[in-house]
Amino acid sequence: MVEASAYTDKVMEHFFNPRNVGEIEDPDGVGRVGNPVCGDVMKMEIKVKDGRIADIKFMTFGCGAAIATSSIVTEMVKGKTLEEAMAVDNRQVASALGGLPPAKLHCSNLAADALHKAIEDYRSRAKPAG
Amino acid sequence: MREVYLDHAATTPVHPEVAEVVHAHLVDAYGNPSSLHRFGRRARSAVEQARERVARALAAEPEEIVFTSGGTEADNLAIRGVARRAGSGHIITSQIEHHAVLHTCEALETEGFAVTYLPVDAQGRVKPEDVAAAIREDTILVSIMAANNEVGTIEPLAAIGAICRRRGVLLHSDAVQAFGQLPLDVGALNVDLMSISAHKVYGPKGIGALYVRRGIRLTPLMYGGGHERRRRPGTENVPGIVGLGMATEIALRELPDRPQAMAAVRDQLIRGIGETIPDVVLNGDPVDRLPNNVNFCFRYVEGESILLALDSKGIAASSGSACTSGALEPSHVLVAMGLPHDLAQGSVRFSVGRGTTAGDIDYVLGVLGPAIDRLRKMSPLYAERAGGGPRAGGTSLEG
Ligand SMILES: Cc1ncc(COP(=O)(O)O)c(C=O)c1O
Ligand SMILES: [Zn+2]
Q1: What 3-state DSSP class applies to B227?
Q2: Torsion of CA A101, A104, A108, A110, to 10 degrees
Q3: Which of B54, B62, B127, B319 has its CA 20 to 30 A from that of A112?
Q4: Between chains, do A107 and B323 touch, taking CB under 8 Å as contact?
Q5: B326 to A23: CB separation less than 8 angstroms, yes or no
Q6: Could you tell me which of B157, B174, B200 has the C-alpha nearest to residue B79?
Q7: Domain boundary assignment for chain A
Q8: Strands A41-49 and A29-33: what pairing?
Q9: Is A56 helix (H, G, I), strand (E, B) or coil?
Q10: Which pLDDT tens digit goes with each residue over B311-370?
């Protein structure tokens, strides 16, 4: 295995066994952040029931940290209320993974951003039109 | 676990014969080559034998070889040495040089020198006519690598050398990757300064050399004793120098056959990837290519994630891109070759070596396909790609 990897075992574990990969049929909210020209791209889709995240799936193009942060974010917020999920920030994501190399902290920003965007998307859809 | 090292362009394992002479000179021949006594003379003669070996490999004279701490110092000494000696002027280099050349040139720009960074074609080749067109009245140096470290493209050095000679401009070449893999003759190539490094040719790290054509005056990088004909002060790294000499001797001995054997393994990997993995692009020149270099872009996935997957199966490769400090930085070489950034993010370099076997390549091919497949299945870019759905069988092997 990777000896003295820059990544924690937890990061590697999520990289090799990512949770909640894929797409949701008919999602209630979608968040997409990043672009392939400047780096990692993440997409999060959520299903909301009774104000809680009933289901969440992600798709990520990016480095090991990007994949691991996406994975752990889905695990952290599944079943949580939207308010609780909105409160999840990049620091919590990084620390849940046992830390990230400093140069990789921006990847954890992306994961939290994608989640928040998905929730905002859900909320904007839920608003009555007009 | 099986381990397959395919990162020989980063560094090579030390050859056992090299390790043996390095050890002997660390332990037994420990004299200072500048000392008059027998201990010193022993060390001196070892250093001079190594100098002869390196000179022979480049078809140069021994007194034209300056030992340095590696390729980086050789590049710095050549470029800064010529520039500082001239005092002012214009330098021509290319956009795909190693950072040891590029950052040296950038530093000289801040000191008032003018630098032209020539573009390359889609295969990563500098056009000789671009060199000719860029030469100005005040051009003091052209620096073009012999072969590129990332994509393996062999540069048309002889043609560039002929132009520089005709126009009376000095030519430096970073031959760190070419050395030991391609025959190099500084006379035939019209190269005036050439950098090499031991650790790319099964020698130790931290030792290299600069060929300096007789009559060329350089301002040294450092000041101290009169070593290396006043061009590089400091007590010689005798074990390193002897190691470089032995590594050079072995490389020269094997030059008639070894590169062809390596190219066969290289081609097995290139073919295998092309046949088993869709949506890949071979980077670099398909023909004029270093015998050890394979470089592919794997569409819709990012390089580091591929490296992690390979590493978990014992396979060592490298990626030009680096996801660091705020943005994925694609390789400057691939960008100069005109690859779109998103494609350049998914590049992986595999560099084979003298110990790489056909069985190693089979093992790598067995791991690589499923690894790419797994990463693509979680890539939004793959899901959203033009046409969508699994692509009808067929490989696009472009470039
Ligand atoms: C083309 C090229 N130039 C220069 C260098 C630097 O050589 P060294 O590691 O000996 O300083 C390298 C290797 O990293 C290289 O590939
Ligand atoms: Zn990243």
Answers
A1: helix
A2: 180
A3: B319
A4: yes
A5: no
A6: B174
A7: 4-125
A8: antiparallel
A9: strand
A10: 999 999 998 755 554 455 788 999 999 999 888 888 999 999 999 999 999 999 999 999
